[in-house]
Fold this sequence. Notes:
The protein is mostly helical.
Amino acid sequence: MSDIERLRPLLNDLGIAINDSLSDSISIVNAVEKIRAAGFDVYLVLEATIAFQKRDDAPPEPTEPREVEPKVKSGNVVPGTFNGDDEKLLRELKIRLK
């Protein structure tokens, strides 16, 4: 079975999950109701770009979380932990931890 054939039912599940989440959103339902009450029909068309990259068969090595001291100028801070995956995401977003 090809990768595309294996991916097709998974993409279908993703589409159903996205549709369900939009349908269950109170804020979306309220906004649509307001538009309809104003005398208009609503057609919601969303475009999504979904990219895939085949992973290596080897499972990724787990990374140990490390404590990070948040730095803010004012306000309440809730300390948290970051692992290697979090740091990778921040780097991709061009966010640097000091």
